[in-house]
Design brief:
Shape: globular
Helix content: 40-55%
Number of strands: 0
Number of helices: 5
Distance between the termini: 55 Å
Radius of gyration: 17 Å
Amino acid sequence: MRQHRLATVGAALCTAAALGLTVSPVAAAVPHKCSYLSSASRPTVTVGDTGVGVQQAQCLSNAWGGEPPKLTLDGVFDSVMLKKIEWIQGCHGLPASGIIEDRTWQVLYHPALDCYDPYPA
């Protein structure tokens, strides 16, 4: 039984590799690089806020590839960050409130590999 299970897992891994189904190394590594705040600490932050909570959200949001701009890790929640957070929320079907609360933190720590919503101009 154990050999059958190992063979099944091995076949699945080979199939995934052949299809190019891999996790982005950038997306997988980012939460470990973002150490401004413990992942257990998830304060509510919004436009105008400053500090390490904002800096953590900026760092995590930079895991998103493609068009979205990379945010400066300055700890200031400005209009550029608001636009990006609203876009990230929309990509995950969350209300685009721009407020970073528990559900948005969850999304930031586990970024989608792709978003089909175009980034606003």
